[in-house]
Amino acid sequence: MKITRENLRKNEITLVPESLDDLYLLYNIISPGDHIYGKTLRRIKKSKEEGRADKGERIPVYLGIETEESTFHEYADWLRIKGIIIHGPEDLVSLGSYHTFNIKAGKQLKIRKDEWKEYELKRLDEASKKSERPELVIVSIDIGESCIVSLSEFRQKTHFHIVESIPRKSAAPAQYEKVLREFFGEVLRALKQVIESEKTTAIIVAGPGFTPSNFLKFIKTKEPNLSEKIILENASTGGPTGVQEVLKKGIPEKIAGEQRIIKEIKLLEEFMKRLGKDERTVAYGEGNVEKALDFGAIDTLIIADTFLKTRDIERREKIDTLLKRVEEMGGKSIIFSTQHPAGKQVLGLGGIIALLRFPVYLQA
Fold it and tell me: Any alpha helices (H) in the chain, and if so which ranges?
């Protein structure tokens, strides 16, 4: 995320989303009632005197709208923001009519709120600081199966899951080598397609036995420059299971440092471990979390991002107060993206969970 101007006296921030993750972040930050300004295309009808009784012509205009609803389209790579026009050239648009912004990466917009919440500013600041952070790509590979996944600040995305039938080496060595090379070639083509669309500086290739190293040797013969970015790691299997094994080992964390996605996995694993032991050092669900907070017991509060996205102003204020109280009591809060499996799991637990400093009896 690129912040081009910040004027909190007027509650205005001008920014440029730079990725799909940034668009998703804006989807969770922009709320009904917020004012959005930016350049857009608007269909303008010609007057009858000009002999144009058609549907009109789309021309560029600078508009401001009061947001009513927003929609995130992950696979179309854009964010739609619909609202009533409150600013624009009066000779071309009617104030009070509706308009929809289609926001893509690289498009500048200004957001004006009645009040910016602390967690909203915090997430924008994190996105801005880490906008240059490269994505990691994991290739888990075994004989006949490979999965290619990219990791970014808020997202884990599976690009390819390739499965091929490979004959046994002992039965037909020549055929085995031929089919294996074809399989490696298919995985390499898929990998190149991924890294062409992602900011990638590190590629983790993991799998059992000699398969990862043999794949690396194959890459060196075809794409020697690409091979320089590859880090080999061990995994007991290929495919999606191999990817999860790499994540649980913390291998990407060693490479990418503070990648948020790795933090989320570790925190959720800690929560589930404590929950399984029934030590009463976790809370989940809004009611129990509030009770734990009343005891001053919350060390880490975890919220699914969609839990924050509500039209109910009173509810938003309640959530904001909850976050502030946690920080005032020395705790920290982390917002999980539901684009990632960990965030979806938190959502399944009521959208809000907490790791506690000490045991608290929460049952009624």
Answer: 20-29, 118-129, 173-197, 211-222, 224-227, 239-248, 251-256, 260-277, 286-294, 305-308, 313-328, 341-348
CA dihedral of 216, 220, 222, 223, whole degrees rounded to 10: 100
- Are 14 and 4 in contact, with CB atoms under 8 Å apart? yes
Angle at 155 between CA 215 and CA 151, to 5 degrees: 25
Residue 53 buriedness (CB in 10 A; 0-12 / 13-18 / 19+): exposed
Band (253; pLDDT cuts 50, 70, 90): low
Domains, in order of start, for the chain: 2-129 (2.30.30.870), 135-258 (3.30.420.60), 264-356 (3.30.1330.30)
Output the CA torsion 328→330→331→332 (10° steps).
80
Instruction: Please report, in angstroms and rounded to a whole number, the separation of the first and last CA atoms in the chain.
Output: 44
Tens digits of residue pLDDT in 113-170: 999 988 889 889 878 876 555 578 999 999 999 999 988 766 778 999 999 988 887 7
Q: Look at residue 243 in the predicted model and tell me its pLDDT.
A: 93
Q: Which residue has the tokens 């890459």?
A: 219
Query: pLDDT digit string (tens) for 65-121?
Result: 999 999 877 666 789 999 999 999 988 888 999 999 999 888 999 999 999 988 889
Strand-by-strand arrangement of the 156-163 sheet: 156-163, 145-151, 135-142, 200-207, 230-234
Mean per-residue pLDDT of the chain:
86
Residue count of the chain: 364
| Torsion sign across C-alpha atoms 193, 194, 198, 200 | negative
Placement of tokens 């010609």 in the chain: 46
- pLDDT for the residue numbered 258: 45
Phi, psi of 210 (to 5 degrees): -95, 5
Q: Edge to edge, what strands does the sheet with 98-103 contain?
A: 2-7, 12-16, 109-112, 35-44, 57-73, 78-87, 98-103
| Contact yes or no for 94/85 (Cβ under 8 A) | yes
Closest CA to 247 of 230, 229, 232, 235: 235
Check if the beta carbon of residue 47 is closer than 8 Å to that of residue 57. Answer: no
Residue with the larger pLDDT of the pair 264 and 291: 291
What three-state secondary structure class fits 317? helix
